[in-house]
Amino acid sequence: MSDLLERLRGRGWRLTAQRRVVAEVLDGDHVHYTADEVHAKAAELLPEISRATVYNTLGELVSLGEILEVSTDGRAKRYDPNAHHAHQHLVCSQCGTIRDVHPTGDLLAVLPAEERFGFRVAAVEVTYRGLCPGCASA
């Protein structure tokens, strides 16, 4: 059983066939599918699943804090099941590929106190941008 399915089962979330398929599609490392991609992959497993069901399920999972909604550069939102493990993102500025990365060190420490303008910073989100190997060699 996937990590996401285990977490959902532990929360007592009702796992209908449709919800289970969406969670199965989202299972894995470096998964950052759009809602349409989730629907297409879910329909391969459960042909009768509707686009509305996929969108509603994704919305519920985001609200529960079980998946992250990732938005980069005005592209379609993507859904990241790695919500419970601190990480940042590496994004290809040409094709939009997203990879999870785990920089070492304290990312908050690189922001000097005078640059915090009195904020009590609770979290840091960093997006690294560049070209993936496929786009860099094209």
Q: Mind explaining what this structure looks like?
A:
With 138 residues, this protein is α+β, with helices and mostly antiparallel strands. The strands form two sheets. Strands 1-3-2 form a three-stranded antiparallel beta sheet. Helix 2 crosses helix 3. The radius of gyration is 17 Å and the shape is globular. The protein starts with a helix and ends with a helix. The mean pLDDT is 90.
Key features of this structure:
three-stranded mixed β-sheet; three-stranded antiparallel β-sheet; 138 residues
Gist of the model:
By secondary structure, the chain is an alpha+beta fold. The protein has helices at 3-11, 17-25, 35-45, 51-64, 133-136, and strands at residues 33-34, 68-70, 78-80, 88-92, 98-101, 127-130.
Helix content: 25-40%
Q: How are helices and strands ordered from N to C?
A: HHEHHEEEEEH
DSSP strand (E) fraction?
15-25%
The average pLDDT value, as a whole number, equals 90
Radius of gyration: 17 Å
**Tally of helical segments:** 5
Structural classification: alpha+beta
Distance between the termini: 38 Å
Query: Strands of the biggest beta sheet: in what spatial order?
Result: 1-3-2
Instruction: Summarize the main sheet.
Output: 3 strands, antiparallel
